[in-house]
């Protein structure tokens, strides 16, 4: 790993279309053999999620209607362990499903249920969480739409430099965030915020903080305009492994727990 060179610092993004995420997952499955299996699974999951991305009240009836589709998909397509968990949850019935979903939506729930809850709630959150009514300060570390932590950082071309954004881990909203600022503890000392990169992923940076020992991956769209942040984040598993090996903890794990 080597330290990445910093940039300079307007482009406003909201959420990446589902079709772009699905296409990017397929592309990365072809281009990165080591990530092919996980990216094909993720691509299939994205297709399922897109079909559930409709607004509505998070009622028992909605959960009973849509949640079994997720469990059925996982029972047929996930790893043996995850498939077995999906089948056990399916057998437990609606009261278990509602407790799992509502617990996560309220900001709690069991860590063992997090994948199932987030996989189900992400498309719902995108459908119901409206964009902020007014300007959002560029120091906000929680999503201004749903209050969740960021899962990945993005650099997008803007005028002569690049603007930094954070991407929500649940509703996928992007909001502008200051370049030299930790997305966890708000540390702003440049020397305590080293950024690293690796030749294998030239458009991906590892943003770290020595104050809170947290990190985020950052997708540099000025180097790869075709990148889709939440998808590329999953494909860059070796960078997550490296960061954790250096003692850094992720601010928020992605959907697949990386």
What descriptive keywords fit this protein?
258 residues; alpha+beta; FdhE-like fold; 2 domains; 8-stranded mixed sheet; 8 helices; 8 strands; globular
General description of the model:
- The protein has 258 residues and is an alpha+beta fold.
- The protein folds into 2 domains: 135 residues, FdhE-like domain (FdhE-like fold, Alpha-Beta Complex); 109 residues, no CATH class.
- The chain contains 8 helices and 8 strands; from the N terminus they run βααααααββββββααβ.
- Strands 1, 2, 3, 4, 5, 6, 7 and 8 form an 8-stranded mixed sheet that branches.
- A hairpin with a 5-residue loop joins strand 3 and strand 4.
- The radius of gyration is 18 Å and the shape is globular.
- 36% of the residues are buried.
């Amino acid at each position: 790993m080597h330290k990445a060179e910093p940039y300079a610092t307007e482009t406003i993004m909201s959420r990446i279309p589902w079709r772009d995420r699905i296409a990017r997952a397929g592309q990365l499955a072809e281009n990165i053999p080591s990530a092919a299996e996980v990216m094909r699974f993720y691509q299939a999951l994205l297709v399922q999620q897109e079909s559930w991305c409709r607004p509505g009240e998070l009622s028992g009836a909605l959960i009973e209607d849509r949640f079994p589709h997720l469990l059925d998909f996982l029972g047929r397509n996930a790893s043996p362990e995850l498939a077995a968990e999906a089948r056990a949850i399916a057998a437990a019935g609606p009261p278990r499903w509602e407790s799992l979903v509502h617990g996560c939506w309220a900001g709690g729930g069991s860590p063992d249920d997090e994948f199932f809850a987030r996989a189900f709630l992400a498309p719902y959150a995108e459908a119901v969480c409206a964009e902020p009514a007014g300007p959002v300060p560029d120091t906000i570390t929680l999503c201004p739409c749903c209050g969740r932590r960021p899962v990945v950082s993005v650099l997008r071309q803007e005028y002569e430099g690049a603007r930094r954004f954070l991407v929500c881990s649940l509703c996928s909203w992007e909001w502008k965030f200051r370049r030299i600022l930790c997305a966890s503890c708000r540390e702003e000392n440049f020397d305590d915020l080293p950024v690293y990169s690796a030749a294998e992923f030239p458009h991906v940076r590892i943003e770290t903080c020595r104050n809170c020992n947290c990190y985020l991956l950052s997708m540099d769209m000025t180097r790869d305009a075709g990148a889709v942040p939440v998808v590329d984040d999953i494909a860059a598993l070796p960078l997550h492994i490296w960061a954790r090996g250096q003692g850094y903890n992720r601010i928020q794990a992605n959907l697949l727990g990386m």
